[in-house]
């Protein structure tokens, strides 16, 4: 299967979307030239964040004209990560009609709890200062999830669990060495 130049990737803080992003990058052999030591955050035994994140108050603003600025190479397909893409789904489709969007959904309450457990405002990369406090963060998680779900409904987009069937059904790839149990209750969809 031919992959696009860019795959816009979004999920709410705490949805475990960053771990899923790493699995997708590895499994599909995507361009990871946006990774640097400064763009990594480790939470306990998990490599929580790797590579560039776009977002309000983050290293790269959520500006569709700047999405190619984070990678040092334009070879191959690149995952472009931002929580803010949930606000810009129609704009992404118009600006980059040949590229894909991947949405990751997890219940808002569970996402907020995991984000707090993973470090919350103490996460060193990316910075979440623009969310100001826990109350606003929770509101943003709710709003971003609502936007993704509504977009999927309005466009007849089907969600699927992120499990062993995702790569087989979407890319005809077997992934026998991945433990999908840590992603129970998480849903994903690809908009091509």
Q: Please report the total strand number as a whole number.
A: 8
* Shape label: globular
Count of alpha and pi helical runs: 5
Q: Quick one: biggest sheet? A: 6 strands, mixed
% residues in beta strands:
15-25%
**Distance separating the two termini:** 12 Å
Low-confidence stretches: none
Q: Pairing-aware structural class of the strands and helices?
A: alpha/beta
- State mean pLDDT (0 to 100 scale): 95
Instruction: Give me the strand/helix succession.
Output: EHEEEEHEHHEHE
Share of residues in helices: 25-40%
**Number of self-contained structural domains:** 1
Lateral strand order in the biggest sheet: 4-5-1-6-8-7
Rg over C-alpha atoms, rounded to the nearest angstrom: 15 Å
Write the layout of secondary structure elements.
Layout: E1 6-11, H1 17-27, E2 40-43, E3 46-50, E4 53-54, E5 78-82, H2 89-95, E6 100-105, H3 108-117, H4 134-154, E7 160-161, H5 164-171, E8 187-191
Parallel strand pairs: 1-5, 1-6, 4-5
Antiparallel strand pairs: 2-3, 6-8, 7-8
Helix pairs in contact: 3-4
